[in-house]
Amino acid sequence: MKVVVMVKRVADPNVNIRVKEDGSGVDLENVKMAINPFCEIAVEEAIQLKDKGQAKEVVAVSVGGKDSEDQLRTALAVGADRGILVEAERDLEPLAVSKLIAKVLEEENPDLVILGKQAIDSENSQVGQMVAALMGFSQGTFASELTLKDGEVEVTREVDSGLQTLSLKLPAIITADLRLNEPRYASLPNIMKAKRKPITTVSAEDMSVDITPRIQTLQVEAPTDRKAGKILSSVKELVEKLRTHEELI
Amino acid sequence: MNILVIADHDNQELKETTLNAVDASLKIGGNVDLLVAGENCDAVARAAAKISGVGKVLKADNPAYRNQLAENIAPLVVELAGEYSHILAASTTNGKNILPRVAVGLDVAQISDVTSIESSDTFKRNIYAGNAIATVKSTDSIKIISVRASSFDKADLSGDASIESIDHVFDAGLSSFIKEELGATDRIELTSARIVISGGRGMQSSEGFELLHKLADKLGGAVGASRAAVDAGYVPNDMQVGQTGKIVAPDLYVAVGISGAVQHIAGMKESKVIVAINSDKEAPIFQYADYGIVADLFDAVPEFESLV
Ligand SMILES: Cc1cc2nc3c(=O)[nH]c(=O)nc-3n(C[C@H](O)[C@H](O)[C@H](O)COP(=O)(O)OP(=O)(O)OC[C@H]3O[C@@H](n4cnc5c(N)ncnc54)[C@H](O)[C@@H]3O)c2cc1C
């Protein structure tokens, strides 16, 4: 079985993001970049399928700038076999990214595609579902567990009401939630080995896909910050405040 | 303008987040219809017909729609889309699951988790865990929008819309339902509760959370949790509040034994009044709290409960 995993380069979740003064976007200059945490989980799941002998090949794909190669190398260092970079000059919208991925999948013919359930920068939570629709695949979003069966994959999803288990016909799209697994760290020898694994680069412009923007960003602003309030000296005082001052309880 | 709202429900009950999605639609302006796709979902359609501002309820009642499988519901929405300028759903797990498939069917973009309607084509949404707010304008002919329920009011229930049955059946045959494990259903829904008491890693165990349930029951509130508490298995996943869990904005949010990581703050910072109870006076949560108590939660929470 062949598994494709998608990885996105994003600002490290631990860095403080600042909005540019001119309101044109966020300032990513000199910000530490990382693999999107949900993509990391997606990669780990694919590697676990390989460890169990259920996946033969794991291909990592990224759509982004040239530097997204770093995140593909991260995926290769934990066990992906090869990488494909669809190089795009600017930030693309989810629909455009999905169309480019679908184009790659038509070539690759995977049995299973695993992505993160959302990217922590743009927070759209769209690409997995869009790729599934473009390919006519089944989809198991927000997955916390998956089990391969003959021609099918059973997926447990974290939904608002609790947990839901579905059976999906292969090929299928899975989007990973936080509790799907605990990603491993790459060992130094594997990081070295990953440098020799192949990464193919294709240009988004050359893929005959319509990637014209549909959405204009008019402004990006900082949220109005909450101000720190008061440390109270007792629970009694708290109850008093909530009762008489706020009239909440 | 004609707007279609996809109702969120479980075939028995209409989810309150649908009322928020209708409120967002009324802010866009125009005629609002509601789609109830499910199986034996008569009661839901009748409840939906009572939402003020809804013109008509479209009821698609078929086993193919029972479990809200995106592969089956999305083509139905695409089929109906011709009449509409906007298609909305609350960004619940169902809305998030279905809408991108609809967008592909119509070859248009989707705008996710909208927090404010600026005009019929311009919206605000949070990015980077709420550290930035983007104002975006859609240039597509049909706008597909998921809305953050907690950012909108609930539409009233004094309407009397007509109910129309639609009989298109789409059964992609790609996926099937096996089972579900529901969280506690007898408790107040987290996303619509007026008061939310959330616990973190500091609760130490499921038993620790019982303290919070007792307090919440007394206050008529719901109980939420941080990711760390869910990961540790103290409580089920449907209680997680945060960037990647549920977004809440109650009148009162009490964070107990929660440090205040940005990903948690992203899910509760629009609450009206925030209270933090934490033994570490340096915990970041205090920077967001209107009232803070620096104390051991195992003393403070029982005392809180005894005083209300
Ligand atoms: C991609 C990504 C997504 C995430 N999404 C979410 C999300 O949706 N929601 C979320 O919550 N987190 C999320 N997180 C995790 C987040 O970064 C934090 O790790 C998490 O919120 C920490 O939970 P906590 O505050 O309960 O635990 P901790 O950070 O360990 O804090 C525990 C707190 O309890 C206090 N405490 C301990 N014992 C006591 C006591 N006896 N009395 C009083 N206080 C006590 C401590 O002082 C401490 O402040 C996400 C992280 C990533 C990377």
Could you walk me through the main structural features you see in this protein, from its secondary elements to its overall organization?
The complex is a heterodimer of chains A (249) and B (308). Chain A has 6 helices and 15 strands. By secondary structure, chain A is α/β, with parallel strands linked by helices. The longest helix of chain A is centred in the first third of the chain and has 15 residues, at 37-51. Chain B is globular and about 60 Å long. The interface between A and B is large, with 79 and 91 residues. Flavin-adenine dinucleotide sits between chains B (200-202, 226-229, 240-245, 257-259, 261, 263-264, 267, 278-280, 283, 296-298) and A (13, 37, 120).
Question: Quick summary of this structure?
Answer:
Chain A is an alpha/beta fold and 249 residues long.
Number of strands of chain A: 15
| Low-pLDDT runs of chain B | none
Report the strand count of chain B. Answer: 15
Hetero groups in this structure are:
flavin-adenine dinucleotide
CATH superfamily of the largest domain in chain B: HUPs
Instruction: Supply the number of helical segments of chain A.
Output: 6
Key words describing this protein structure:
heterodimer; A: 249 residues; alpha/beta; Rossmann fold; 9-stranded mixed β-sheet; two-stranded antiparallel sheet; 6 helices; 15 strands; B: 308 residues; 2 domains; 5-stranded parallel β-sheet; 8 helices; globular; binds flavin-adenine dinucleotide
